[in-house]
Amino acid sequence: MKVVDCTLGLGGHSEEILKRIGPKGKLLAFDQDEENLKRAKKRLKKYLKQITFVNLNFEHLKATLAKTKFGAPDAILMDLGLSSPHVDDPERGFSFHKAGPLDMRFDRGQKLTAEWIVNSYPEEKLANVIFEYGEERKSRWIAKKIVHRRKEARFTDTLDLANFLISIMGWKEKIHPATRVFQALRIAVNRELETLESALHQAVAVLAPKGRIAVIAYHSLEDRIVKTVFRHYTQECICPKYLPVCQCNFKKKLYLLTKKPIIPNGIEVRGNPRSRSAKLRVAERL
Ligand SMILES: C[S@@+](CC[C@H](N)C(=O)[O-])C[C@H]1O[C@@H](n2cnc3c(N)ncnc32)[C@H](O)[C@@H]1O
User: Fold this and answer.
1) CA of 94 to the centre of ligand 1 (A)
2) Residue ranges of the domains in the chain?
3) CATH architecture under which domain 90-190 falls
4) Bridging pattern class, strands 26-30 and 2-5
5) Which is the closest atom of ligand 1 to the Cα of 77?
6) DSSP characters for 26-92?
7) Hey, how many other C-beta atoms are within 10 angstroms of the C-beta on 90?
8) Residue 174 DSSP code
9) Is 13 close to ligand 1, i.e. is its CB under 6 Å away?
10) pTM
11) Do residues 70 and 60 touch, judged by C-beta distance below 8 A?
């Protein structure tokens, strides 16, 4: 089998895939984070001949398959979002519990950081980011407060921003008041939703017949994109409803294997609390 792991991370899934595809199987593994790629290489050292490592965003899926002459994949996996080292290392700037630079880049070679967004985006653009990617109802008000504060002192530190958000919003819900703003910044910095949507369309286009795509999403925005793109390709026709005869020539491309997403059970969540919001959807190419 030829398998693509779009989100290699620390190589846990890839290792299990390699065990199952046997010595003749091939794996193409993406991660835009160079440090994770290095960690995974160490872990997978006995399989190196079978793996092509790609230090790029998975939005380059189609072009990379062509460039490497990998052929049509039999399976494509996406395990979206952050890996544990991102959350645990304050230097990466993802955590609102520990002081670190306001960074949040998966790819440390890129220019855009959370610090830039927080300190340089015009108020309205900042509010839109917080609303669209954080689904935060008070986005306009929060953006206004941030803009006011940054005139006196720039935000450069994660804990400073988190404490500022606590100070203006209070702590009324179960979740930390900074949760939605941090999620929004992370998604904006890494263009997570655009790249996901683009890569999903590419994945459907490149999969071998009967090939499968599996995606694990961790928040509703990414899960909605997966659900919508999968549903799009399970349709027979995409003509507007008022047309009496089909004119679209659209071909159904996917069969859904998970009508509802697979979620972890209580035992799994107790063993691995970071799995608690995971939703797995799988589809098969016709
Ligand atoms: C949840 S972790 C994957 C963990 C992995 N399945 C494992 O077993 O260790 C997600 C990884 O994908 C990477 N990643 C996230 N979005 C990406 C993208 N658009 N392109 C390439 N890599 C991405 C992150 O840097 C991170 O290392």
Assistant:
1) 14
2) 2-79+192-285, 90-190
3) Orthogonal Bundle (1.10)
4) parallel
5) 6
6) EEEEE-S-HHHHHHHHHHTGGGGGGEEEE-S-GGGHHHHHHHHT----SEEEEE-S--HHHHH-GGG
7) 17
8) S
9) yes
10) 0.96
11) no
Q: Give the nearest ligand 1 atom to 31 CA.
A: 22
Q: Is 100 in the pocket of ligand 1 (CB under 6 A)?
A: no
115 vs 40: CA distance, rounded Å: 29
Q: How many CB atoms within 10 Å of residue 277?
A: 14
How many angstroms separate the alpha carbon of residue 79 from the centre of ligand 1? 6
Give residue 234's Cα distance to chain centre. 23
Domains 2-79+192-285 and 90-190 share a fold: no
- Dist. CA 102 → ligand 1 center (Å): 20
pLDDT tens-place values along the chain, 286 residues long? 999 999 999 999 999 999 999 999 999 999 999 999 999 999 999 999 999 999 999 999 999 999 999 999 999 999 999 999 999 999 999 999 999 999 999 999 999 999 999 999 999 999 999 999 999 999 999 999 999 999 999 999 999 999 999 999 999 888 999 999 999 999 999 999 999 999 999 999 999 999 999 999 999 999 999 999 999 999 999 999 899 999 998 999 999 999 999 999 999 999 999 999 999 999 999 9
Rounded-to-integer distance, Cα 32 and Cα 192, Å: 12
Mutate which of 83, 191, 225 for ligand 1? The one with the most ligand atoms within 8 Å of its CB, which is 83
Phi, psi of 270 (to 5 degrees): -65, -40
CA distances from 117 to 67, 180, 284 (A): 34, 15, 39
CATH classification of 2-79+192-285 is 3.90.850.10, yes or no? Answer: no
